[in-house]
Each structure stands twice: as C-alpha cells, then as structure tokens.
Amino acid sequence: MGDHSLLEKSLEDCALCIESRKLNKQCIVAVGLTTYLCTAPWEGLDDEHLLIIPQAHCASSLQLDENVYDEMRLWRRGLVAMWKAAGRDCVFMEMAQDVGANKHMFIECVPLEAELGDVAPVYFKASKAINECEGEYTDNKKLIELRDMRKQIPRGFNYFTIDFGMQNGYAHVIENREAFPPTFATEILAGMMDLPPNRWRKRKELQFEDMKKRTTDVKEKWEDFDWTKRIKRDE
Question: InterPro entries in the record, alphabetically (predicted)?
C-alpha cells in the first residue's frame, strides 16, 4: 500500500480526528484552536484519565507544527493547576509505538495522589521493566532524560515519553516494537496505584452513559481552569 493510500485509510478509520463520524463526541471536555481535551473512552487508571489530542491527524508529537505542540502544553498547565487544587499530582505520557502506521497520536494525562507523584520519577527510572525492555542488546539508552524531546528524538522514530507534571521526564526510543508492550507505562502506574490487572491489560470501551457522566464531572472541575474561554475564534 502506498503512502497516500495508507494516509487515506488512516483518516477514514480514525476515531480521533475532530471531524470524524467515529469521534466519541460525548467524551469531549473542551476544544482549543488546534487541539482538544477529552476523557478516555475506556476505564482508564482513574475517572479523570484524560487525553490531549491534535484536531488534525498526526502520528507523533515530533510531527506536530510548533503552534499545535505549544497549545498541547497549555492543556498540561491547566490540568496541573486543576489537579494541584485538588491536592493531586499527575503524569503525561505518549506511546508512539508504530509511527509508520500513521495512527492518530494522543497524550495520556493521569492524576496521581501527591505522595505517588513525588516518587514517580524515581520509580520509573529504577523500574525493572524499563531496564529489561527489548532485551539486552539495543543501540539506544534505556532512558533519555528529556530537555527538549523534539530535538533529542529523531523524527520518524518510535518512542515512549513520560513527563511528571510540568517537569520534563524520560523517553525511551523503541527499536523493536514487537518487544515493547503497549501497556508498558500503564502497567507501572497501575502497580504504583495498587490497581488490578483489568484496569490496564485491555482497554475495553465504556458504555455511552458512563462516558457522558465522566465527561460531565470533569467539565465541572475544569471550568475554573479552562483557558479556551479566553481565545478568539474565527467566525
């Protein structure tokens, strides 16, 4: 299949493009100029497990235009403030495991209790899972300490990243995607949070009413931190 045909198929099947008929509109919390915030349509690790998503189809953060990338960080700042007001911390994760397949990227936003947020960076760095992933013989470091991911990770590479609140975190360049489990980060977080395996092993989609209720609850909490109310949109 050629690149153009692959792109057309990706767009046709995509449930995350904002114009898609497959989009779970009941999950949308707020919409920016080029991105949007929504609740996860699966059970997730918390009732406030959220996603930051570019409106247009894009396979990874490395491929985003600068203005889109900057806008995604606005959501992060708002969410950090919202959860801080509730006495919670958070992490932001991206799993770009198969960039060549051109799947729509998203950032997972997971709130943590404050005491877990304090130890999360150390927990991930010392994790047996990251040190053993993809076997012993790999060309890249197991963990890269992030300063500017868009300069540190080559465009087109597969990777995983995790940031802790607004602090830069870690990245792992995925060399063998078959050997790197898509549930890698959620499994580690679930272990920290003492959650059962069914919360991370399979992402079973929620019922419509459950999605709607979660989104309504998050909208109420997000109201005081909603930066999108200040933007001017074209008529």
Answer: Cwf19-like, Cwf19-like_C_dom-1, Cwf19-like_C_dom-2
